[in-house]
Amino acid sequence: MTDLRTPRPAARRGNRVLIIVENLPVPVDRRVWMEATTLRDAGYEVSVICPMGRGHDQAFEMLDGIAVYRHPLPPDGEGTLTFVKEYALALWHETRLAWRVRRERGFDVIHVCNPPDLLFLVAAPFRALFGTPMIFDHHDATLEMYEAKFGRRDLPYRVLKVAERLTYALADVVIATNESLRGFALGRGRKRPEDVFVVRSGPRLDRFVPRPGGERYRAGFRHVVGYVGVLGSQDGLDVLLRVARRLLDRGRDDVRFMIIGGGPSLEPLRALARELNLDGHVEFTGMITDQAELMERLTACDVCVAPDPKTSYSDVCTMNKVLEYMALGKATVQFDLTEGRHSAADAAVYARPNDEEDFAQKLLDLLADPQRCEMMGRIGQARMRDALAWDHQAPRLLAAYARALGRRAARPAGGTLARGEAS
Fold first, then answer.
1. Strands across the sheet with 223-228, in order?
2. Could you please report the per-residue DSSP string of 368-389?
3. What burial class does residue 387 get, using C-beta atoms within 10 Å of its C-beta: 0-12 exposed, 13-18 middle, 19+ buried?
């Protein structure tokens, strides 16, 4: 750890970055960590504000040359009041820490990541007072996520809609994870095409390499089906458990489901697994932070799955887990979603949307055809290597920063935009 009171040479103006993320701690948030390290390698001085958790509970540390400031958050939950409490507490900490970073290190760009679409409230004073440009890193379609979780368009939904509009209005540059989110920025965000950059979340291929040694995790089963990701109410893990029950009802007791990850739905899912009499056939590993174990477990899987049901939210999401499966050469079963198909192409098979019986059959078909799985795995690895991996995304990230800093240079003192320039 570095003592922030220790004098240091002043950083060159124009290359100091503050990234704020609320969804996951750094470096657990793989996308944000790749962005931070890419910027560092390009000569930027990077500071990050994020929550504590997942084994990263230090309030401050220098991590590979990146200053990481962390704050506490309440426990995970699913209710509206839980989200309100979390967001209010997070905004207070993020604002407090942003002023601290400005005093101790300074920043020339503020980069906010959703969810939620409320972090513009942290950035707004710096933009108004100092002309600091804001980059909006659009990870999730928050309006669609809320509707998928709660099934309604009530007052919180309307508040989120206003927050999204204000975030777009304040953003000098928008980074979108896929073309669907780029379309939102151009349409309901009214951003100019030259201010919107698609930077996908493809993993670094040197971090996702097949690793032998995971046979012990098969626990004697002939087949293992793998899932990795956050366990939330919108992620379709209840669907996966019902698919597992369907396989057992067909007499297929030779298949084990390995569910890797943590989240607010972990305990309800364990209860559902017991209710469906899946003991012994489903393993909930919890969050795995050891990269070697994670690679061993996923490498041992015969097929991987993305059971997210089709909603207005999931249809426009690029699922990180699918990209990670592809990097490891794993064939995938998923429902037929717009961005899911765009990512995986022929590296996946696609069940009819929300048809659990068809999902189960597609899974059984793949398990019965290891040669097809191997071919699909090679297709996925080629797509990652040729187009989707982080090496292809990093130049777009740097271009977005060049655009944001260029807009700052064109803005007159006091933080307002030049005549005729939209925000």
1. 282-286, 255-260, 223-228, 303-306, 332-335, 348-351
2. T-HHHHHHHHHHHHHHIIIIIS
3. exposed
Say what percent of the chain tops pLDDT 70. 91
**CA–CA separation, 80 and 297 (whole Å):** 35
Separation between Cα atoms, residue 123 and residue 111, nearest integer Å:
8
Strands 255-260 and 223-228, sheet pairing: parallel
Residues 6+ apart with CB under 8 A from 134: 109, 110, 111, 112, 120, 123, 127, 170, 171, 172, 404
Q: What local confidence, expressed as pLDDT, does residue 149 receive?
A: 81
Average the pLDDT over 156-183 and give the result.
96
Sign of the CA dihedral with 157 first, then 343, 263, and 249 last: positive
d(CA 119, CA 352): 37
Confidence of residue 6 (pLDDT cuts 50, 70, 90): very low
Residue 325: C-alpha distances to residues 126, 289, 336, 393, 414 (Å): 40, 17, 17, 18, 48
Report, in angstroms and rounded to the nearest whole number, the Rg of the chain calculated over CA atoms: 22
Residue keyed to tokens 């003192």: 413
State the pLDDT at residue 410.
62
Alpha helices in 108-178 (DSSP H): 120-130, 142-150, 155-170
- Measured CA to CA, the distance from residue 144 to residue 325 in angstroms comes to 25
The model's pTM: 0.89
Q: Which residues pair with 261 in a beta bridge?
A: 286
pLDDT tens column, 189-234: 999 999 999 999 999 999 999 999 999 999 999 999 999 998 988 8
Bridge-based pairing of strands 303-306 and 223-228 is: parallel
- Look up residue 46 and give its two tokens: 């990077």
The token duo for 398 is: 């740097």
Q: Residue 257 phi/psi, 5° resolution?
A: -110, 120
Cα 21 from Cα 345, distance rounded (Å): 30
Residue type, 42: A
